[in-house]
Amino acid sequence: MAGKFCISLTCAKDDTDRATVAFVIANASVASDKDTLVFLSIEGTRLSQQGYADDIHEEGFAALKELMTNFVKAGGKIWVCSPCFKKRKLDETALVEGATIVGGAKLVEFMADGCPSVSY
């Protein structure tokens, strides 16, 4: 792979446009042969739950569920902020495919060698 790229996503149904665009960019990154990570934090952690994104479809874009599925199938990773996940009392047994609950140290490790990132 030609480097890494990180997308930090802090929203979900509270801002479906940002959530959708984050995964559009994530798909473009993984398609460009980048080791791509979407880090879900704050309200974004809700996207880690099966069924949550099923009804999110911004005009002019593919449905969010489709974007997320395609991203993971292409080799992208979804990491979920552990404290944010626990605060919202989400279900560890209902994670979407490709999602992993991690602590902040794991994100720092991924980005430590100068990884570019964008935030939504």
Task: Give a structural overview.
It is a single chain. The model has no long low-confidence stretch (mean pLDDT 97). The chain is built from 4 helices and 5 strands; from the N terminus they run E-H-E-H-E-H-E-H-E. It is an alpha/beta fold and 120 residues long. The protein has a single domain, classed as 3-Layer(aba) Sandwich (Hypothetical Protein Ychn, Chain: A), CATH 3.40.1260. It has a 5-stranded parallel sheet with strand order 4-3-2-1-5. Helix 1 (16-31) runs parallel beside helix 2.
CATH architecture: 3-Layer(aba) Sandwich
Under CATH, the topology is which?
Hypothetical Protein Ychn, Chain: A
Q: Biggest sheet: strands side by side, in what order? A: 4-3-2-1-5
The percentage helix is 25-40%
Low-confidence stretches: none
Count of discrete alpha- or pi-helical segments spanning 4 or more residues: 4
For the CA atoms, what is the radius of gyration?
13 Å
The CATH superfamily bears the name DsrEFH-like
Top CATH class: Alpha Beta
Straight-line distance between termini: 24 Å
Largest sheet: 5 strands, parallel
Task: For this entry, give a set of tags.
120 residues, alpha/beta, Hypothetical Protein Ychn, Chain: A, five-stranded parallel β-sheet, 33% helix
Q: What is the element layout, followed by pairings?
A:
Elements: E1 4-9, H1 16-31, E2 35-40, H2 64-73, E3 77-81, H3 82-87, E4 99-102, H4 104-111, E5 117-119
Parallel strand pairs: 1-2, 1-5, 2-3, 3-4
Short description:
This protein has 120 residues and is an alpha/beta fold. It is 33% helix and 20% strand.
